Amino acid sequence: MANAKKTATKETKTTATKPEVVDNESKSDKFQRLAIARTSKAVKAIYQIGNLGSANYESTPEQREKIKAALDNAVQSMINRLNKEVSKPSNFTL
């Protein structure tokens, strides 16, 4: 049967879904909803950056140090902003 349907058992990836926005949501509830979604996304992105250390890629120690410095700066900036201190993000280049 050339046109037979293929049935594959694929496990679906579990990804963080966006919680629905609620009308008249309190500032505290909005903070919690956004903090969970954004933190989950950031942690996943950082994990994926770590994958660049695998044997599939080649990098110099200087490139790795630049990545670490950029992430350190971004984390420090985030901490300052959470503590109500103003700072702006910088662009990253290798």
Explain the overall architecture.
The structure is a single chain. The protein has helices at 27-50, 61-82. It folds into 2 domains: 26-58; 59-94. It is mostly helical.
* Secondary-structure element pattern, one letter each: HH
Rounded to the nearest angstrom, the distance between the terminal CA atoms is: 53 Å
What count of domains describes the coordinates?
Answer: 2
List segments where confidence is low: pLDDT < 50 over at least 5 consecutive residues.
Answer: 3-12
Query: Which structural class matches the secondary elements?
Result: mainly alpha
**Major sheet summary line:** none
Fraction of residues in helix: 40-55%
* Total beta strand runs: 0
What is the arithmetic mean of pLDDT?
83
Count the DSSP helices: 2
Shape: flat
Helices and strands in order, then pairings?
Blueprint: H1 27-50, H2 61-82
Quick structural gist:
By secondary structure, the protein is an all-alpha fold. Helices cover 49% and strands 0% of the residues.
Salient structural properties:
flat; 94 residues; single chain; mainly alpha
